[in-house]
Amino acid sequence: MSAFTFTPMSYADFKTFWPAFQQIVAAQETYAIEPDITRDDAYRLWFISPRTTFVVKDATGGILGTYYLKANAAGPGDHVCNCGYMVADAARGKGVARAMCEHSQQQARELGFCAMQFNAVVSTNDVAVALWQRLGFAIVGTVPGAYRHAQYGDVDTHVMYKAL
């Protein structure tokens, strides 16, 4: 993990990561985001709306991935946070998602959140489901057929939760 550097995402970082973002949502395998989302709408979604957004870079400054952190709900539900993680295709399998999840949990604690909840982890995303479970998240519910997967059709999503 020491080979990774986390910094708050800048607009320039977002523009650099935009092709990877497009590729991830266009695949329709993990994110319930319109596949043809515009860069401006994606920027608002990923960078403006959340409480904080980070990028993870390698030793050369190349962007490996990004995550956002925000309250999962408003008012009486704002003590539980939600995160979204994206890893560039070339960085998969290098521990980036694990590092982002660990970093986001620390950030969440520092921001006063008591728990983290993932609202819609696509059940066919076996790598992510297994990683989140290894990091202490439990599947607390499953929503049948809640995601239209590009390859498998309607698949389940999991709600995953961890007290911080």
General description of the model:
The two termini are 21 Å apart. With 164 residues, the chain is an alpha+beta fold. The chain contains 4 helices and 7 strands; from the N terminus they run βααβββαβαββ. It has a domain at 5-116: Aminopeptidase. A 7-stranded mixed β-sheet has the order 1-2-3-4-5-7-6, sandwiched between helices. Helix content is 31%, strand content 35%. The longest helix has 17 residues, at 11-27. β4, α3 and β5 (115-122) form a beta-alpha-beta unit.
Number of helices: 4
Let me know the number of strands.
7
Structural class: alpha+beta
Major sheet: arrangement of strands: 1-2-3-4-5-7-6
Report helical residue fraction: 25-40%
Distance between the termini: 21 Å
CATH architecture level-2 label of the domain at 5-116? 3-Layer(aba) Sandwich
Name the helix and strand elements from N-terminus to C-terminus, one letter apiece. Answer: EHHEEEHEHEE
Q: Per the principal axes of the C-alpha atoms, what is the gross shape?
A: globular
The name of the CATH superfamily of the domain at 5-116 reads: Gcn5-related N-acetyltransferase (GNAT)
Largest sheet descriptor = 7 strands, mixed
The CATH class of the domain at 5-116 is identified as Alpha Beta
What name does CATH use for the topology of the domain at 5-116?
A: Aminopeptidase
Query: Strand content of the residues, in percent?
Result: 35-45%
Uncertain ranges: none
Radius of gyration: 15 Å
What value does the average pLDDT take? 96
